[in-house]
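Following up on my earlier thread - several people asked me to post the actual chain instead of describing it. Fair enough. Here it is, all 138 residues.
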Amino acid sequence: MSATNFSLTPPLYVPDNPADEIIVGVAPLAGEDVVVKHYANSFRDTHLKQVLDARNIDTLVVVGAMSHMCVEAVSRAASDLGYGVTVVHDACATRALEFDGTVVPASYVHAVSMAALAFGYASVTSTAEWQSATPAIA
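Reply from S.P.:
Thanks for posting it. Predicted structure:
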């Protein structure tokens, strides 16, 4: 994923939105929990915390879209709930934003989001760095 050239067409968080379809390559295995969210923060009004706690998971690795929304929201919430958080910055994406007539390029939006998370909520790393530091999952 790249911080640039990412587009997502609203409405978001509505049933049957094609943008919410699970990608075949990361589809859940039989018996895996699926957490359906309706807000940027994946913990809000879901059973995500119960799923993690039932498995004694205390550290999360966050990837996805959009850096300035879901990635930030779930990373901040997880940190506030006491989880260790690692964000893999080059496995996240966002889009350009506009405020008060100024267009902010996606690369800047992404950089600011990552900088804010690294400042106090998460360890921010690249895919290559994360893979080299993480044992292979059997």
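The beta strands are 59-65, 84-93, 97-99, 102-104, 123-125. That should answer part of your original question.
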